[in-house]
Each structure stands twice: as C-alpha cells, then as structure tokens.
Design a protein that fits this description.
Rossmann fold, 474 residues, 14 strands, 2 domains, globular, alpha/beta, 8-stranded mixed β-sheet
Amino acid sequence: MKDAQPVRPGYTVVGAGAIGGTLAFALARAGHPVTVVDTDRTHVDAIRTRGLVVARGGTRESVPVTATTPDEFTGTLHRVLLAVKAQATGTALDWIAPRLAPDGYVVSLQNGFNESLIAQRLGAARTVAAFVNIFADVIEPGVILDGGDGALVIGEPDGGPVSPRVRDLVAHLHSWGPAVASDNVEGYLWAKAGFGAMLAATALADAPMADLIDRHRPAMAALTGEIFAVSDRLGVTLEAFDAFEPQPFRRGADPAAQAAAFDRLTAWLRTQTKDRSGIWRDLAVRHRPVEAPTHYTEVFDHAAREGLPTPLLHTVVTGLRQLEGAAQNMSESRLDELDRLAQPPHPRSRSTPNRPTRCASGSTPTARTWSPTSPPTPPRAAPATTWTPWTAASAGCATGSTGAWAHRTPRRPSRASRPETSSSAATPLGAPPPTTTGPSFSSGTTTPSGRPAPWTPGPSGGTATTSPAPASST
C-alpha cells in the first residue's frame, strides 16, 4: 500500500491575468489546490472548460484549476496572491477583507507600491511584500503566453526578517522558477520603478522596447535618475534584477558604466518573447486606462515632500494619459521631446560667479543665474521648474536679445504646435498628474448580477481579448 501523499497548501489567485495566471499555473502543476478569481466571464469560462493553459515555444500545456467570478466565490480565503491592476487594489481589497481568515495573508504580486495600502486595510500581519518581473501575456481567453525568464522576490513588509511563511511561500513558488526571499523587497520595488519608467516611456511610441531605449538613452537615463534621486533621499538600497543594474542609472554615474549597463539591458530585452510593454498593450490592444499613474503616485508624493522635481516622469505619465483612447497618436517624436528635456544646459552657456548673464548691449539681466557647481534649488512653495533654454525677454533682457541659461518655468507649446490635442488639464512639472474619471476598476465586462466587474485581472497584461493578439508586454 502506497503512503498517502502530503496535502499541499492551497492558494487563491485574485486576478488571473498574465502574472496571476502564470503563477497559478505553476502552483497547480506542482500539485497545489488553486482557485483563480477573475471578473472576466469569458476568461473564467475558458479556464473551466480547458483548464489554465500556458503557451511556450510553440507548445501548449493545460492544468486544471478552480475558476470563478467574485460573485460566485464561496468560502474563506487563506493564502491570497493578489495580481490585479494597481488601480484596482482598493476595490479588490473590499472583496477580500470580509473573506480573509484571521491567520490568512495577501501577497501583492503587482506593479507599483501597494503593500502599505494592503497593510492599512488588512493589517501588517496579514500582508506579504513581493517584487515580480515576469514577462507574460494573456493572448486569448484562458491562455497565457510565457514570455521567458523573470524575477520574483518575497519578503515581510517594511524590511522585516525573513519569516517561516515567507520561506514556505518561496519554496512553493520554486514551481515557477527562481523565487527568492529577501528582507529588502523595497529595494527591488524602487529599482523596478526606475526600470518600469523606461518601459512606460517606450509605450509613447509603437516600436520594440529595446530599440526605443537604445535610441533614446539620454531620456531613459534622466528618467531613471529622477526616480533614483527620490529613493536615495529616502535611504533605499537599490537591488539589481534580471539584466537591470540600478547603480549606473543614478545621477552622477560613470558614463562608461552607464553605457555598458544600457548595452546589457537592451541586449537582454531583445532575447525576450515580448517586445512591447504591458502599458503599450493596454493602449494599443485592450484600449483601456493605463496603471502607470497609480504606479508612480508614491514617487510623486515623496518627490514633492522632498522638493525634488520630476519633469520627465510627469511628462511620460501625462503623455500616456493623452494616448488613452488615442493610440493612433503614438509617436517616437514624444521620446525625441524627452531627449530634449533631458539635456543639461550647454557648459559654455552657463553663468558663473565672475561672469554675468549675457544680454543685448545696455540691457541689465534680472533672471536668477547659477554656477556650474551649484545649481539653485527651487523654493518648495514655488511651481515646479526645470532647466530650459530661455529667451532674453523671459530673463529680463530687452526683447529680441539672447542670453545664457536661466531658471524658469517651461513654456507650454501652443495647441497648434503639439503632436495632437488632448483634453487633459495642464499640470505643473514634477506634480502628480490629475486623477482621471472613467471605468478605472472594470475590465469592461459585467458579473452575473449585471454590476460592473470590480477589477481588471493581471498587472502585466491580464484581461483576455476575444481573439488572439500579438504578444507584447510586461
């Protein structure tokens, strides 16, 4: 008589999109009882009929899992993997909270910084932090495209020591791949915020991520530099993952080291099955709001408190919002503009303590000037500003004269000169973009009761499309 096999712990995956579906598949294949909860009825029905399918290398493999919509779910939640879009976190927690066992916990397998919200709603003891970088896509109802290797790090919130539950969870997730435990998940999340900002910027155009990052290195370096300036101010120790090394992308990094880091990153991206970001896919394929504004809310908030301007990050987020419902306006010219915004003042044009700003003969400069070694910091109460080339009139010189670089608020281009018009309100550079209205927490489907679905599945591409779409995103 054979010995009875030990019963493996069960998991509930809330949001069976790209990330949630990938991990649900791996756990179920390893023998764990898995229930996936998703608002997309077509996706759920396909999983019930064929099992959860993962496609890789021209082959497809299916495993049976329990699939349900939120309204149909019954029972108590114990181990929850939360994999909904970041902006849907609050709505998902409304559903989870009354069902979560006292000794249960929720793991945030999402983009952005969501652990603090989960801890506020459920308690720190029922919150587990995670960093995930998995390249996958939902390509049709019930089918996940495996996008290649990735990274997964689990830990206690706020840098607590690795606990038994974290070790157990990591051991179970080895069914997916090289999951690891860490007491510095925060360092990974901030590193991914920099890496993710580059991927978000590539969604402004319709071209492969690796090519756009390679062609627009000045913008990408300045963009990550803004984010890492905030993490440095907060004392975060950044962690490397996959082919991304954060240190060469901090401000003041050695140019040769940064160039080599760009080379390694773009070479690695070119090996991935997916060549476009999840944000690009949301805009171009699913035609739904992007989650980038939610990802970077915490970055904007910390930057504002610390008096650190974030003009490039603001420009990226604003540009993505302008493209919601207008993907035809994607253009690489948007990244060209980021390159221009990233350029520092020309060294020969900077004012020095011994040389006043150049104005037309007889004019007296009134603009603030700066030395190459000590650029001024804008007052916290003043509108966010950036360093841009100026006209003489803006610096207090006579109209038509020319001058050096001065500290001033950028001039918004006229509507006629913009690539396309937008209804988005102007927001000062460095400030969080305005909140949009609309179906932010719905996948566009309804539950059996006729109510809007309460969340969209999967942070790296989750809502299934009704027909196969090209693979492309994180």
